[in-house]
Amino acid sequence: MERLKKTQVLILGGGITGLAAALYLAQQGVDFILIEKHKGTSIYPRARTIDVRTMELFRGLGINEDLREGGKALAPAWGIIRGNNLVEALENPVGKITPQQLMEAQKEIKSFAENSPETVCRCTQDISEAILCETAKEQGLALCFYHEMLSFEPHENEVAVLVKDRITGEEYTILADYMIAADGANSIVRKQLGIQVSGNGSWTDLLNIYFEADLEHLVKGREFSQFLINTPEITGFLLTINNKDKWAFHLRFHPENGETIADYPEEKLIAILQDILGIPDLKISILKALPWQLTVTIADQMRVNRVFLAGDAAHTMTPYAGKGANAGIQDVQNLAWKLAAVLSHEADDALLGTYDKERQPVGAYYATLSGELADKNGLINDQLMVTKAKDLMGLPDYGYESAAVKRAANLPFTYFIGEPGTRIPHLWLNELHTISSLDWVKGQFVVIANSGEGWQAEFDQLHQQFNINIELVTLNDETILEKWKQLTHTKYDEALLIRPDDFVAAKLTAGNLLSVMQSILNK
Question: What DSSP state is assigned to residue 221?
Answer without folding.
Answer: T
